[in-house]
Design brief:
The protein is an alpha/beta fold. It has 9 helices and 12 strands.
Length: 291
């Protein structure tokens, strides 16, 4: 008997790719289906030049052949028709399941979805919480880190339980804000104060693409902040995620990238503070502190 197929189209930055992958992997596991990822079509024409980055992990998914990713002559037209009829032509048995305004889709957990193609961001752990151990094993790093990154990791490790990742996302690359709301200065300062009340002499390791904003707004308030080195575009995201995961505690902005750094941390006693201004209100884990 042939297995069903769960197919996902990957797109966006590393954090988005990880949410899409995790949701699809968990769904395939529940239904005993083969898991396939379309790792090409979602990046065609990406205005931020983003690319497939999950090959830096020990993922087990099969890469989609052209027939599943509509990567063939007139494939774009076939995709449009498929989206309209909610079936993945020419495979009428494969239904298309599309996310609806970040509303949680219970059918992905309880329904019979052995043959489907997922379209969406799926930015909540509720889609894969029952498969957490599997997802963590899929996101083990396969990329060999440079000596400079390993040196930064050793500095983080030296502070042990005092280390706090401070993830500051300013979305400076976004020209027009649609659903994204910036996390303000007061959130970070309040969160740092809250952490300081629970951890003696915390060291805040700042991950950001806008160091000047942090220096102007968050430094000189009595907190010890160390800036992580800026990485090159090609390897920056995966290297910073490797370092984020090493931290024992977290203050994150409304960024899926920082979300995954906190989620992947193996510290069972970690403190995670997250804002409330997410596009998907279900993104913040129930065990985290929500401000």
């Amino acid at each position: 008997m042939n297995k069903g197929k769960v197919i996902v189209q990957l797109f966006g930055g590393l954090g988005n790719q990880m949410f899409i992958y995790a949701t699809g992997k968990a769904l395939a596991h529940r239904n005993g289906s083969e898991f396939i990822i379309d790792h090409k079509s979602g990046f065609i024409g990406d205005v931020y030049k983003r690319t497939f980055e999950l090959n830096n992990f020990k993922i087990s998914a099969k890469l989609a052949p052209n027939i599943y990713s509509f990567n063939y002559k007139f494939g774009g037209y076939i995709r449009l028709i498929s989206n309209k009829i909610k079936r993945h032509l020419p495979f009428l048995t494969i239904k298309i399941i599309e996310e609806s305004n970040s509303k949680f889709n219970d059918d992905l957990i309880t329904g019979n979805n052995t043959n489907c193609f997922l379209k969406g961001y799926w930015q909540t752990e509720d889609y894969f919480k029952d498969c957490s151990d599997i997802i963590r094993s899929e996101f083990l790093f396969s990329k060999k880190m440079s000596n400079s990154v390993l040196n930064e990791a050793s500095i983080i490790d030296s502070y042990d339980g005092r280390s706090v990742a401070l993830g500051v996302r300013r979305y400076q690359e976004v020209k027009t804000f649609v659903n994204v709301k910036l996390t303000d200065k007061q959130y970070y300062l309040s969160s740092m104060k809250k952490i300081s009340e629970k951890i003696k002499n915390p060291i805040f390791f700042c991950f950001t693409q806008d160091q000047e904003w942090v220096k102007t707004n968050l430094c000189n308030h009595g907190f010890e902040i160390l800036f992580m080195e800026e990485k090159n575009i090609e390897n920056g995201a995966i290297e910073d995620l490797f370092l984020l995961k090493r931290c024992k505690n977290f203050i994150i902005s409304n960024s899926t990238f920082y979300w995954w750094g906190a989620w992947l941390s193996e510290n069972k006693n970690k403190i995670v503070i997250a804002p409330s201004n997410w596009v998907n209100k279900l993104s913040v884990c129930k065990s985290w502190n929500n401000i």
